[in-house]
Amino acid sequence: MPEITTTTHRGMVFVKYGVAAASQPLAVSAAIEILKDGGTAVDAAVAASAVLTVIEPSASHIGGDAFVIFHQAKTKVNLAFNGSGEAPHLAVADQYPNEIDLHGYKSATVPGLVSTWFAIHEKFGKLPISRLLMRAIDYAENGYPITARGKRIATAHKSSYPELNTLADLGIKTDISTGDIVKQEHLAWTLNQIAEYGRESFYQGEIARRIIAGTNGWFSESDLNNHKTRVLDPLSVRYRDYLVLGQPPPSQGMIFLESLKIAEGFDLVNLSASELTHILIEAKKISFADRYDALADPEQVDVDVAKLFANKHIAKRQSEINLTKANNFAGNQSNEGNDTTYFLVADQDGNALSWIQSVFYPFGSSFVIPETGILLNNRLTGFSLDPASVNFIKPGKRPAHTLNAWIATNLDGSLKYVGGTPGGNIQVQTNLQLLVNLVDLGMNVQQACEAPRWQHLSEPGNPNSIETYEGILEIENRFDSQTLVELEALGHNVSKIPAYGHGSAVQLLEVLENGTYAAGSDPRTDGQAAGY
């Protein structure tokens, strides 16, 4: 068994009825409030999602997207909700002489989060949407206290982009102090419109008209009106004695599952910490290489996921891992936006959601639609301007997406684990480590959240490169020194980061054999797990 520290700073939360875990305690409180009022897990998730758009605007907003895996306990049915937006009618390569704009409305796809609320609620909700948005509306209208982390993120954004008015447009003062109250009058109006008039208000009504006018026609009536949330069967692979369910394309959840299948071919339990870490890193590199060759909008490009999961392909990829040397000439990866929010909810009936939402880069496009408070995403930057790429930009097409969430069931279909994390391209790497921690190394959910982690990134100085590269292995300094020495000897370019410096924050849930929920929350962020 690898020697990996499993000391924790938080205790697991054990509950009988409902549970939620998120990066913001106020979102958790909103979810638990709805569960106690008789709402379903879906109702509670919509409430938490809405609160997060208000209090964590750098990471998610109603101008962004969402991906959700839903588990229904009674039927053992699992569904994937794909809430990613399409490129608008004007989004063609000629609009961008050199690269796709990072900021401004020309970096945005059609927002998909609001549509996702209604798509999920229509199928599995119980309480009215107006009730579910009450807490978010209150925080927008009457204000919420900004956290120390929120202040740091806001200050860093203003320092990096002093020419942008993002913070002011969101109601965040430049000289804000921790605990100061942030009010968002225009966002409160928008949320009230959605609460009163439903989905149509956002995609066809007054909000839609303001979005079109505020972006000078970048979005058209048809762009907004034609948007839909896709409801699909999740991807699934067997890993050891569990079935792991992930997001279908255009999410890159497929490479998380491919990495698991590659890793499954090795006796991970009987390896040293350096050997285990080496294999997982190499599996990650291989999966990312497949991602850049194949991942795109499956409605416009044939994405052959079955081929990636086929035993023949997995065996070939496993054989490409050199146990004595790092492969520094494979594993293409670009640095992409990593400001995202992940949370989970489960109710007393055993239904659960694994939910992730985002505006992509910090504060997304940094563009707020006038008189709406809506902060747009900058997901168009997830496209390629290379006509040869399967991910080439095109109107109506959805970009390859970093967002992914997962659920694991027992082989009989009953729920076992729910988990996920923010972090852009770090997400799938983190999720790989989480499943191995839980399944192979026998950690509980809090230990798995807090265990030391690594992240393999593209080389400094060329952040947008997707050429072959050596890469940097950022690894928390809680790994013992011998492990770091052995990884360097294998050829990894090791860079130590602080003890809890890994760039993502995990939430995890396990259903124990007696039916009790055990939840864990990552101390790397402000969040918590709670229930009743």
Question: Would you mind describing this structure in some detail?
Answer:
The chain has 532 residues and is an alpha+beta fold. Helix content is 34%, strand content 18%. It has helices at 25-36, 41-55, 113-124, 129-132, 134-142, 148-160, 166-170, 185-197, 199-203, 206-214, 221-225, 253-263, 273-294, 305-309, 311-319, 426-440, 445-450, 481-489; strands at 13-15, 19-22, 65-72, 77-83, 144-145, 181-182, 230-232, 235-239, 242-246, 339-346, 352-360, 368-369, 374-375, 406-410, 415-420, 454-457, 472-476, 494-497, 507-511, 517-521, 528-531. Strand 19 (507-511) and strand 20 (517-521) form a beta hairpin. The two termini are 35 Å apart. Mean pLDDT is 93; it is low at 459-469.
Arrangement of strands in the largest sheet: 1-20-19-15-14-9-8
Q: Average pLDDT value?
A: 93
Q: How many alpha or pi helices?
A: 18
Secondary-structure content class: alpha+beta
List how many beta strands DSSP finds: 21
Q: What global shape is seen?
A: globular
Helix proportion range: 25-40%
In short:
This protein is 34% helix and 18% strand. It is an alpha+beta fold.
